[in-house]
Every structure is written in C-alpha cells, then in structure tokens.
Amino acid sequence: MEDEREFIKKPWDTSREVPHIEDDQSPFKLMKLLKLITLTVTAVLVFGLAVCSKASFLLLITLANEGTKTILSDHKPVALLCIGCSLVASSVLLLLKSVWKACHKTSKLPKCSTAALVLFFEFVVSGGAAILTIAAMPHLDIVSNVAILNSVAVISSLFQVIAQCSANARNRFLVPSIFAFLLILLGYVLFLTLYITKNPADTRTVVWVGLAVGGSFFVSFNWWEGYFQLISKSSGSVFFKNLCQDLTTCQNVLHILSSVLRILVTACVLGAYVPLSKMDWFVLKSISRFETKVIVITVGVQLISSALCHWFGLAACKMHALRRCFILPLYLASLAVLALFVIPVVVYYEQYIKGPNTTTVIDFGGYCDAVVNNRNQSVTGSVFPQLVLDVTQTLCFLGLTKVFDIGILTGSSASLWLGLVLATIHLWQLNVSRIQRTQDLFIRRLYEGAFIEQSLLLNTRFDIQTTGRKKRNRPIETVMVYLCATMWHETYDEMMKIIISMFRLDKYRPKADPKFNDFTFEAHIYFDDAFEHIGRSEDVQLNKYAKNLVEIITAVYRTFTNMNGTLFRRNEPIPDQKILMTPYGGRLIITMPSGNNIVIHFKNKDLIRHKKRWSQVMYLYYLLGFKLMTKFYERWQKGETEVDIRPHIKKDKQNTYILALDGDTDFQPSSVMLLIDRLRMYPRVGAACGRIHPTGSGPTVWFQKFEYAVSHWLQKTAEHVLGCVLCSPGCFSLFRAAALMDDNVMKTYATKSTEASHFIQYDQGEDRWLCTLLLKRGWRVEYNAASDAYTNAPEDFKELFNQRRRWGPSTLGNIVDLLGDTNSISRRNTSVSKLYMLYQLFNILSSILSPATICLLIAGSLNFIFSLNSIGALVLAVIPPAIYLGLCFKLKANTQILIAGILSVMYAFLMLVVTLSIIGSMVEQQTILTPASMFVIVIAGIYIVTALLHPQEFRLLFYGVLYIVCIPSAYLILIIYSMVNMNNVSWGTRETNPTAGAERPAAKAQLTTAEKAKNTLQKFVSCMRCKTCNQREDTTMILEPGQHELEPQNTIVEDVRVPDEEETPMEIIYDVSNQSWVADLQQLSIINDMRLEEDFLEQEEQDFFFELQDKYLKPLDDDKNRKKQIASDLKDLRNKVTFAFFMFNALWLVATLTLQINSDTFAIKIPKITLPYNNTHTYVKVEPIGFMFILGFAFTVVVQFFTMIWHRVYTLIHFVAFLDTEPIKKRTEDQDLYQPGRRDDTVSVTETDITEETYSDYSDSDDDTYERVHPPSSIEATDM
Predict the structure, then answer these.
(1) How confident is the model at residue 150 (pLDDT cuts 50, 70, 90)?
(2) Buried b (16+ CB within 10 A) or exposed e, 1212-1249
(3) E strands, 1063-1169, where?
(4) Could you say which of 470, 594, 661, 738 has the lowest number of CB atoms within 10 Å?
(5) What are phi and psi of 659, to 5 degrees?
(6) Residue with more model confidence, 460 or 592
(7) 1144 sits in which H/E element
(8) Which residues, 6 or more positions from 1106, have their beta carbon under 8 angstroms from its beta carbon?
(9) Are 283 and 75 in contact (CB under 8 A)?
(10) Contacts of 906 (CB under 8 A, 6+ apart)
C-alpha cells in the first residue's frame, strides 16, 4: 500500500481530459417502438390478407355452385373461369420471372430424367388442384370446403415420417408427424361418411366427394422437392443426389416447363368440365353488369391478396418473426374464414325465426325451403345478403338438423385442421439466418392461390430436429475482415474518430471470447509519407501526423480500459506493444483491450510508392496475396495437390473481406455487421457500401449534406434496385477477397498510369475504377442504407472545388468506359442489363448537358423579369460562363476558384429571383401546367416525401434551400472548372507545405559496381542478423542511382515519374544512421505510459516486401522528359474532351434557341388550365426539345422515387432482423465505469456489455436479461 501511495497524483491536479466517445449500440425507445409497430402491422397484414384470399376464393367456389342465385345457373362458367385464373396466377408470375432470368442469366438444361420427374409431379398436382376446385368443391358445403383444403398436408406428413425414420438420430417431431397423418386420414373418413351416408343412392354425390378426396391427395404432392432433398441426405443415393443437384442448378428451365404445364393442365380441365356439365362458354358474352361487378371484385381481391400475403409472409420470416407474424396468423386464418361464413348464416337464420312474420317454430330445413331455395336473383340493393343466402344454400344440402351430422362435420373439420397444425409444428423451431434467402427458406418459388395459408406453411423447408436440447442454428462459417484505412494528413480529431471506431469494434467482437465465431477482424492503417528528414541529413523521424496518431491510440486505449478512472493514483501503464522496422518504413502493432490488433504501417515515400491507390495495392497484395495464399503454398510444397487445395482456397477467398476506410471515417460495429450480412448471404456480391454522411460545419458542408442525402436517397437506391451500384466509396466499403483476386481486378488495379487517360481514370477516381473492374468481371456491388458511416467533408470552397475536380472527370471516364463495354458486361454480369445501361446513358447525358440546361433556366428567368426576347436573354445568360470558360484556360487555379466564388454569389441571388419568377409565372398565367412549374412541383413533392421516409434525416431538407440557390455554382461553374482543369492530377485536398528543415537531402552520386556489390552483401548479412539478434539494428536506405527527389504533392503532374525498365532493383540495407525514429517513438510512447518493444519481421515476410516493392511499388523515377510528355498529353486530352463537352452544350443551346424562334411551327401546345382547374380553351406553347428533356428528367426522378420506396421496405426488413439477432445484456451499475466523464449528449463506450450474437430463429424471445441492439442513433431505422 505504501508503494502504491508513492505513485500518486497531485491532489490539486486530479481533473481529467478524456475523449468523448459516442457509442449508440444500446437500443432506445424509438427503435423498439419502430420494431413493435413493424411486426404488429406485418402480423395483421398476413392474417388479414390470408383471410381475404381464402374468403374470396371460397366465394368464387360458392358462386359456381349450381344452387346459388347471385350468378345465374346459365352463367356459372364465368365463375369457373375465375377459379381457373386464381389457380394459374402464380404460375404466370413464375413463368414471367423465369423467362426474364433465362434471358439475362446463364441457365442450365436439366437431365431428361429430372425433367420427366418434375413434370410428372407437376401434372399430378395441377390436375388434382383443377379437379378439386373446379369439379368437386362447387358441389360441397362451405364448411367442408374450408376443411378439405387443410387436407393437402397428408403427403407432407407422410414424407416427414419417412424422412425422420430414415435419419440415423432420433428426432423430436416424429410423433407429431405420425399423428398429423392419422388425423388427416380420420378427417377424410368422417368427410366421406357425412356425404355418403346422407344419400347412398346418389352417385353424383359419391363422385363429387371422391374427386374432392382424390384431388386434395394429388395436390399434397406439391412440396415433394424438399422432402426428396432431405431423404437424399440420409440415404446417400446417387440418383437422389443428382436429382437434387439438377433441381438446384436448373431452376429457371424447370420453372418454365412446370409453369407452362400447369397452365395447360388447368386450361384442359376447365375446358373439358364446362361442356361435360352441360354448360356453354358462349354465355360469357351475355353476363350482366351486376354479375360482372361481383365477379371482378371477388377475383381481384383474391389475386391481389394472395400475392401480397405471400410477400408479407416472406418478409415476416426474414424479420425473424415467424411465430407471431407468420405461423400464428396463418393457423388462425382458416378458423377466421370459417367463422366469417358461418356467423352471418346463423345471424340471418336467428333473425328470420325471431321475426314478426314467423309464427311457428321452424328448423333449418324449413328455413332453407322457405327463404333460401325459393328466391330469385336481385340486381338491386346490397349484394351481401345474397352472398349470405348463397352460402346458406350450400349448407341446406346437408340439412344439418341432426346433432350427429353436425358432430361429424365438426369432427372432420377439426381433424383436418389439427392435422395441418401438427404437420407444420416444426416451424416453431425453424432455424432462420439473418436476411435469409428465399430459396433457402421455401421449397417452391411462389404461392398457391387456392390454399394460400396451407401453401405458405407447407412450403417452408422441413428440418429434422433431434431430441434433447433445442437444436441451434447451423454453425455459420467464420469470416475474416481486414479493416484497411489509408492516412496522410488527417487532423487530430479526424484520426481520433477512426481509432475510436476500431476500439468500438474490438469491444463488440473480442478476439479471446470463443462465443464470437461469426467473424474475426484485424485493423491495418497505411500511413502515407509518414517520415520527414531531420534537417538536411539522411536521418528520418515520424512527422507530426504520425506522432499524433500514436498519441491518439494511447488516449483511446486508456478511455476504453478506464485506466484514467483513478482519483489520486497515477495512470496505470498500457501493456507493451510492438514496433518493427520494415523494408517500406516501419510498423507499429497495437493489441487492443479485447485482443484484436491494429497494425500501423508507416510508409517512407523514399522506399515505397506513395498515394492512396498504391497503399491499396500494398494491402491487397500483403493481406490477400501474401497472408491468404502463403499457407496454401506451404501445403502444396509439402505434397498436397492443387486439386485438394483449390476448394479450400476458394472457401477462404469467399470468407475473407476487406473493409476499405478513409483516415477520418467514423462508424459503429452495427454498420459493419450489416455490410457483412450482404456479402455472407449473396456469394456473387463483390462489394457493399453504406450510407455516407458528410460532417463539418458551414455553408459548404450544408450544401454537401443535402447533395449526399439526395444522391443516396434516390440515385444510389435506383442503381441498387435497377441494376447494381457503379461506385462503392472507398471511405466505407466492404470488398470480398474472391472478387478482388479475380482475373483482371487486383492485377489490373496495380497498373502504372502510362497514358493521359490513365491518370484521370485510375488515379483520380481509384474507388470507382476498382468497382468498374469488378463489374466487368461479373461481380455485383450493393448498397445497404442502414449501414451508416461519417466522414469529414471539405469545409472550404477551394477544397470542395479541388475535390470535385478529381471526381468529375474520373466519374465521366469510368462510366464512358462501362457504356463502351455494354455488350460484354451485360453478358457477364447478371445485374447489369442493357436497359440499365440505357438508364445510365441518360444520366450521363443529363450531366453533360447540365451547363446548357442551367443557361436556359437563367435565360427563362431573364425573359420573365426583364421582358427580354429569347435571343437576348439567352445571350446574356451565356456570356458570364463563356467568359469564365476562357479565363480558366489562362489563369491559375487559385484565381479561377476566386472568380468562381464571386460568380457563385451572383448566381445565388439570381437563383432566388429564378425561383420567384417561376412562382410569378404561375400566378401571371394562372396555371400550374407549364413545364417549369410542373417540374418544380413534382421534384419538390418527391423530395419532401422522400425526406419524410427518412425521418432522422428530415432536417437535411432545410439545406435544400441553399442547394437550390447553389445550383448554377454546382452544375455550371464547378463543371467548367473541373473540365478545364482535368489535366491537373494532383490530389488537391489535405495538402500542406513541408516542415521547415525537413527537406529531403540531395541524392547521392551514382554508385560504382563494387559499391553495389558491397551493399548487396551488407543487405544479406543484415537480414540474417534480423533473425538472430535480440537487439534491434538501425537501418538506412541507399538510393539507387538516378533516383531523385520526389515532387511536391500539389504539382500539376504530381506522380507521373516512370522508372527505367532497365534499372536494377532498389538496394536497402540496415544501418544505424537514419533510423533514429524508432528511439524517438519509443521515447514518446514512454511519456504516454506505453512501452514499445522492438520486434523483427520474419524472413519470408521481409523477402515478400522486397519483391513487392521491386515489382509493383518501387518509387517512381523523376523522368523530367517523360513528365513533360505526360503533361503535354494531359493538356491534349483536356482540350479534346472540353471541346466535345462544351460543343454538345453549344449545340443544345442552338437547337433550343432555334425552336424557340420558330415556336409557332414547332411548339407543343399544352391546354392552359387556370388554378381553379378551369379549362380556358387556350394553349401554352412549349419548345419540344426542352419539354422532352424536362419530361425525361422528371421520369427518371419518378423511377428513382419508386425504387427508393422498394429499397426502403427491404432495408426495414433487414434492419428489424438485425435488431432481433444482436442481443446485449442490460447495463448494470458497476459497468458504467467512467460515467463522471460522460456528457449529457454522449454515451460511454462501456455503457453496455455486448455479448454473444445469436442467430436465433425466433424474434419473440422473452428473455428479460437481454435487449436488442440497433444501429447507431444516427442510423435511421430504415436509413437510406
């Protein structure tokens, strides 16, 4: 105790300064409420739609009964035709979907035996369904019709018994399956007894009930595939194995064949039954309006409710709400339908016998004779009483005056319903993964409209459950995630964000805990240009940015482990960490509190090529090329064959992911999990990105916040739904190793830029180019709207212009590259169709013509305000941008940006006037049906509704006012600047002047051959020492002759130095002269109570980096002649592109002006309707090109709006599933370790103790010790 008291703080110096760490993994009430509302609505919809589907179908059956009156007896074929439509509706949808897939995806042909077996079962099932519903059920009572549909579980229960008996282990659902089969047989017996004993001499009744039993028995073969696959696993039969493989790989062709067969069989049965029943098809021409209305409404409700019930049922399963939103509502649907039909019959009967006109006691038979049988069709009044009497008519046949008959009917119905329940009781223990794929959850692709709830329940795959403890989910494969961040000149606060995010993820998935087996991770930070020279010597030290990073890690480490929590004692030292010298500079390995590592790679630009793309190439080859493949190479060297190794390599590639990050990215663990879900569930997804939120303050950031929001709300979601995302931003994207290591991806990405277009497409837009390579290889890129990340946006006008100067030309180049290769990409990539590429073509044309469009908008406002003619207004609108265009070719970049700022302010005032002029035009012309007015109203309405669907981002809509006034700056001035300066291939952001005295020393004179040999020998000896020495030897780098000082980052052609192909490899030896940075960093770390121990690279890894540097990452030689040539080529390319770009705009302006001058000849006349919506019989004249362009643009936005809604729904499903599969323990008081340092608006990172992720199938677990995790509070529940 006395020793401890010696190391104390000063009592007057106990105040602390700790990072404010926001951790929003704990759920809050709004998220819980959203989940509750979503699941409640889903359950109600599944139940209600199932009831509507079943009730409307049984009404069609009732209308087809020969004794009912709502549809005349001669017109019964129309009801039978609607029954047939209900049977084949799902087959038609499946046929269309399969044909689409067959046209756009590779489809294999099945074996003849497989096709024959499938078609045989489809023939049996479709024939049974048609016979049951068309020939048999119209002659039965309503109660029997409700009950007989439950009997379609008979074969499923039998298959369950067979599959479970063939399994090696005892299982828990064998007894329920046996009882289900016996109960259904009992229901059949009671049903036959009821009808046959009623009138044994009536052969027609015997035929009807026989067809009903036989038809339902045949229909029950519908779900044979799932049980065959289950039996094949137990039997090991080669036939079953090949059959199941064919069923999986040849689905499209088999679905086309089976759908066509079902439609034909149903049509044949329907076509044959009508004439056999002495009915005529020609009566369809004489159907009354009343009958048409009844039939159309009934069949419409049946078709729509069946499709929606199937969709919402699937959504309930994916949201892990099987019990309350799927199983229970479907169980109750049959009972509700039965009550829905029987209760009105009883009520009408009671009203009749208690009515004033009834003087004697009358039984149900007398009621049928007096009221039901002797009525006529009524085309006036409500149709409901007639339908009730029609339902009563079906019950009159049985009489139901004896308790025995009622008992048999009740027993039959109860037995069949209980049989269905027991046959599907395994669903209560169903294992469902997060965002479960439909084909893995259901046997058949679509539903059965005639028996919707039975088809949904029986269509779910059956899994044998062993006795004893409840079976857990199948173990999922562990994936390895490498977090790879690139840094350069990030500020202290920016680096703090990403380090906190990495420590959060470490706490979320502790490495040492065996419960967390879904994924492991390792963080890598690649720090570009991390060293600076000391004075003019060769000694180097870490620059201030790298030192800041080490200090930040120390501070965050203490905060997460609560080492700052003591009051008087000094801080406890952080566990020892490792520091290494490497061929590219240095490495710092930090082990986070929960066991995961952060590996910081300090890059020396004198040793290895710098800039972001080359850092990415470095980690791709290190993590995927070296770490992933070396272990398999060692196995191959030990004698294993490539045939044996290849499956393991493929598996590791599929289950290895790289999370690309920027040095200022802030994210939550939930965001990473949501991206992992996309790649884990869909093997052909090569990359997935999240919703990027720009952070910062000021008008420039406000503009970007709205711009980012709109682009993600509409553009990103449209790309995801219509095709696939074209660009996954490098600040927060998850890539699959198999995609990156595919042919022509990683290798091509490491290509040195040798042509002018390469510097723009490859280096200025490296993220988009990487996605372009993935798309060309057939990989899909997805967007997950609930996965949020935050990154700093340029706060300065100049920085924003320089950033967009990089993005604009590179985006244009990559999209043009994709469009030029449309045929090849559409054949290889199933997510990219020619129609989707046409959509992208329209988007790029809209972008190209945006300067001319803005000029036309301004000209229109000048015309309205100053009453100028069209030519004068257009000339005035074009003069300022034309002058600015000319100045950009002559002035320096900074001067261009200064002028751009002045013009932006002027145009902002003008845009305010333009907005008011549009409103004034509407008032003056007293109509909203002008193109400009309609366009503004439609766009504004879409943006408002879209914002309402993103409630946590609704505040961004207020920044839309700033966005509107900045439209000329963004789509006219900025485009001119970016196009004219596309030859400037410097980075343009985060650039700083070198520290005084840190200039690189002059290059050494050329070495002689003897000196080279000496250096090589020294390198060999030093490398051998690295393996044996316990003490670190300092190193120095001897430059290869001819390697000159690197250019500053802000030069026009900053990185175009090309190494001489004949140049010998760079020589690197270890010496003490220039590696004082190790001691400096150790000293700095000791001050922060973190001791760094020196460690050494393995010889194999060291050799790898030497070879990697020599082949791909050698610093580029400063070839001045080559540099001048590239600069000249870039200017030539700039001149050609800008000429074509602005020529298109000029032609657009001239064409529009010509049409405006000749408006009497070419104008489109739109009827003028005043604001009270009165037709004035006058017309507004609009020039056709502008009108069609506005119409096309508006159509694009409307398409994006509907795709956004579609995407929101599926994001909500994924989000709710995430809430139900990420439980955490509730916080206890002793877990709130450093609450005194917590602000009111922040949450301590240790507020919750995140525990095991579960993949439980039930979302309705009631364990009080757990809560559900949701994505960060900044992540909207269904955030796009």
Answers:
(1) very high
(2) bbbbbbbbbbbbbeeeeeeeebbeebbeeeebbbbbbe
(3) 1068-1069, 1090-1095, 1164-1169
(4) 470
(5) -95, 105
(6) 592
(7) helix 1120-1157
(8) 583, 1065, 1068
(9) yes
(10) 880
Q: What angle do CA 718, 721, 723 make, to 5 degrees?
A: 90
Hey, what amino acid is at 499?
A: I
Predicted TM-score of the model (pTM): 0.83
Q: Are 681 and 435 in contact (CB under 8 A)?
A: yes
φ, ψ for residue 581, nearest 5 deg: -95, 140
CA distance 281 to 289: 18
Taking alpha carbons only, the member of 816, 865, 877 closest to residue 841 is 816
> CA-CA distance, 815 to 749, in Å (whole number)?
17
Residue 589: strand pairing partners:
578, 599
597-603 vs 585-591, strand pairing mode: antiparallel
- Distance, in Å, from the CA atom of 157 to the CA atom of 146, rounded to the nearest integer, reads 19
Sequence-distant (≥ 6) Cβ neighbours of residue 1199 within 8 angstroms: 718, 722, 839
Vertex 61: Cα angle to 58 and 65 (nearest 5): 135
Q: Each residue of 597-656: pLDDT tens digit?
A: 999 999 999 899 988 999 999 999 999 999 999 889 888 888 888 888 999 999 999 999
Angle at 582 between CA 580 and CA 586, to 5 degrees: 60
CB atoms within 10 A of CB 890: 8
Cβ(528)–Cβ(610) below 8 Å: yes
Q: Give the Cα separation of 1056 and 759 in Å (integer).
A: 8
Which has the higher per-residue pLDDT, 922 or 1145? Answer: 1145
3-state secondary structure 1211-1225: HHHHHHHHHCCCEEE
Q: Is the pLDDT of residue 1061 over 60?
A: no
List the beta bridge partners of residue 733: 660, 689
Tokens 């200025």 found at: 764
pLDDT in tens, 885-908: 999 999 999 999 999 999 999 999
Model pLDDT for residues 188-235, shown as the tens digit of each residue = 999 998 888 877 777 888 899 999 999 999 999 988 887 777 766 666
| 1248 has a pLDDT exceeding 50 | no
User: What's the CA gap between 14 and 580, in Å, rounded?
Assistant: 36
Q: Give the list of residues 6+ apart from residue 114 with CB closer than 8 angstroms, or none.
A: 242, 243, 246, 247, 250, 254
Residue 436 has pLDDT above 60, yes or no: yes
Give the integer Cα–Cα distance in Å for 275 and 76. 12
Judged by DSSP in three states, 736 sits in strand
Beta bridge partners of 485: 525, 661
Residues 6+ apart with CB under 8 A from 766: 612, 613, 616, 730, 749
- pLDDT digits 0-9 by tens, 917-941: 777 777 766 666 666 677 778 888 8
Distance CA 828, CA 836 (A): 14
Q: Which amino acid is at 695?
A: T
User: How far is C-alpha 76 from the geometric centre of its chain's CA atoms?
Assistant: 49
Interval 350-363: pLDDT, tens: 888 777 766 666 77
**What's the one-letter identity of residue 701?**
V
Question: 1087 vs 12, 510, 542, 571, 633, CA distance in Å?
Answer: 21, 28, 16, 11, 44
DSSP E strands: which ranges in 925-1055? 1036-1037
Strand partners, 1166: 1180
**524-552, pLDDT tens digit by residue?**
999 999 998 887 777 888 999 999 999 99
* CB 698 within 8 Å of CB 795: yes
CB under 8 Å to 16, separation ≥6 — which residues? Answer: 564, 1237
- In angstroms, the CA 371 to CA 388 distance is 12
Buried b (16+ CB within 10 A) or exposed e, 740-755: bbbeebbbebbebbee
